[in-house]
Amino acid sequence: MLRDALFYPQRGPGWLWTVITGSLLTLVGAVLFVPLIPVQGYLLRVLRSTADGRPHPPKFEDWGDLFVDGARVIGVQVAYLLVPVLVTLGGVLARVSGAPLLGSALLLFASVAGLASAYLLPGALTRLATTDRLTAAFEVRVIASVARRPIYVVAVVEAYVALFVIAGLGGVLVLILVGAVFAFYGQVVGYHLFARGYAGAIGDGQDPMHRPQTAAE
Predict the structure, then answer these.
(1) Domain residues for 53?
(2) Residue (of 198, 69, 78, 80) closest to 142 by Cα position
(3) If I label 138, which of 82, 99, 171, 177 is the partner at 20 to 30 A Cα–Cα?
(4) pLDDT in tens, the chain (217 residues)
(5) Count of CB atoms within 10 A of residue 94's CB?
């Protein structure tokens, strides 16, 4: 899936303008937070479009909806990562306060909780995208059952590889335009893979990009 997904942002008419728009928003967002909100809204559209089996990435349009969707995405991300972050802070404070055993235990728990949250978060976001219900992102039992499917495991691992390598490189170079391009491009690839894993896991186990109806579109 990863090799195919690397070219996903380049498909369809107007793809270059989409990448330029997302890259510029990412670049400005390195200084001002607000431009990152529509970027997150766009990534939610990537999840929705991919889960529906559409071969081309969406475009930046309907900016009001992009801001609303982006705010919802950020809310879900914060909710899923809040506990690991707070426990990590507690562990650090415990260690510097003279309770190393408690601090180590808290840091270990935070690591496990962080990995679990990072693994379930793609399913939560894709569930939000496909149902358009914020509460669906917190139906942990449903998401966990989806996360056990092999196609979800493979897709999420490949997505995080793309995010850390491509988007991570962009994070290092974010103060220049080429870094913003890497950062945005890597996120689109990663979220595309998230949706492919979720859609395949919740359905018939088949990659939505390889279903017969996709080829007909």
Answers:
(1) 2-216
(2) 198
(3) 171
(4) 888 889 999 998 899 999 999 999 998 998 899 999 999 999 999 999 999 989 999 999 999 999 999 999 999 999 999 999 999 999 999 998 888 899 999 999 999 999 999 999 999 999 999 999 999 999 999 999 999 999 999 999 999 998 888 766 666 665 566 788 888 999 999 999 999 999 999 876 677 777 665 433 3
(5) 18
